[in-house]
Every structure is written in structure tokens, then in C-alpha cells.
Specification:
The chain has helices spanning 15-29, 44-49, 54-74, 88-99, 120-127, 156-164, 166-170, 198-203, 221-232, 252-261, and strands at 4-9, 32-37, 78-82, 104-108, 132-135, 147-151, 174-181, 209-215, 236-240, 266-269. With 270 residues, it is of the alpha/beta class. It has a ten-stranded mixed β-sheet, with helices on both faces. The chain is globular and about 65 Å long.
Amino acid sequence: MYKDILVHLDGGDRDPLRIDAALTIAKRFGGRLTGLFARTEHQRAAAVARRSSDSFEIAAKHSEQQFSAAATNAGVPMRWWRLAHGEAGHVLHETVVCARFHDLVVLGQHHDGKDAPEELVEHVVLQSGRPVLILPAVGTYPSIGTNVLVAWNGGRESARALHDAMPLVEGAGNVEILTVRPQPSTQTADQTLPPLSIHDHLASHGVTVTREVLAGEDIGVMDLLLSRAFDQGADLLVMGAHGGYHLPFFKGAGTRHILKHMTLPVVMSH
């Protein structure tokens, strides 16, 4: 269960959406919510000096009041953290470190005008070792995790993501496992092994799933995932995240594609 949740806040107009989503999850699991104020500094002199400007302090105070009021109204135990200043490297490093001390991290997709480093979400996903729920930069999401699409290829990252998201998957009304295979496999299964079935594994958790295996020749795999999620009315996509160290195959490009073009909330783990 998610008993200790972190939500990132930067003083932007999407903060209330992330607060509401994080509070809903915290209430569901009887957990505590921590609000982390971390944003980039607009005033160059303050950033270079690694100190907070007046505008940074005003934004932090407003964010704290907004967060505290929402958590109090929801009856959720909460605590407030904030960074001392907004130098970009400090924001990236400290947000990752804070994330490591929580069960789930709630972030917002980067967009123009967002007061956070563009690479923040990717850094947290790849370096925190924690599951990250990312909310899109547009739209509202009154329900998250009632209709779940899981991207599954049997690899390490997809296994990590599925099991990190299990508290949400177990409570979903509908779960679909989607496997995309660009070409048929030519490998012969080891006949000495028992049948390996993700259905059977999830059934042990009380989860009934449907599974679809699709070919990905005519459409990019990541676009296919988003298209399938839209067609199924999914309100959550669960997928593994890849870093850029897989060169020359560069699987990290798929992760970045989702982070840029996501159309629904996504849980990622690496």
C-alpha cells in the first residue's frame, strides 16, 4: 500500500490538480501526504547565489497555504517540505532524494511556463527508485486507476512498474495487459519450465485481466499504447521506464515520447 506519498508543487496553476489526486490516493490507503515545494528561480542573481528571491518566498508561502488547507479539509495527515532556493541543479537533486523516502511520488508533466526543470520528471523516474505517478499538463482526472492499461513485455522495467503499481491495479474495476510485438518471436520455450502467465500471477492478487497482443509495424509502439488507452477509456497507464544508456537501441526515447505526449495519468518505474 501507499502509506507515505510525496506530491511535487511549484506554485503553478496545475498544483491543485496534483494535490487533489495525491489526497485521493492517500485517503484510499490511509496514508500521509507530504507536499514538496521545489521550483526554479526566476531571478538569475538569486539562483547563482543559491538563495531565494522575494518572489520565490511568496510563491512558497502561497503553495504551503494552499496545500495545508486542502489536506486539512480532506482529513489527511500531512507535512510540508520546501527547498531553500531554486537553482536548477539543486531542484533536480533534492527532489530525487526526497522521492526516495516515499512509497509513491506524484508529479506533473512538463509544459511551457512550468516553474521546474524540464528534465525533472525523467530524473525522478530514473534515479529515485520509486514509482512515479505523472499527471498530464492539460485536462482534469477525477478518477485514476479504475480502468488500467498495463504495458507488458516481460522485461525488468515492465515487471518493476506493474508491481510498483499493484496497490492501484488490485483496486481497479478493469485491467488490460497490452503486449506489443513488432515481429513474431523465433525463440523456443524451455519445456522444463512451468507455463509462465501474467494472468495467473495477477489472479493470485485477486485481479482479473484481459490481455491483448498487438503488432506494432504500422504505428509507433508508444503511440499505439496511447491510442489503445484512449480507445479503452483507460484512466491510468502503467509502464516501465528506460534510461538512455541502452545505446544504440536507445529505449529511453520511448519513455521521453510518453512524457511529452501523454494523454492520461501514467505510473512509471525504472
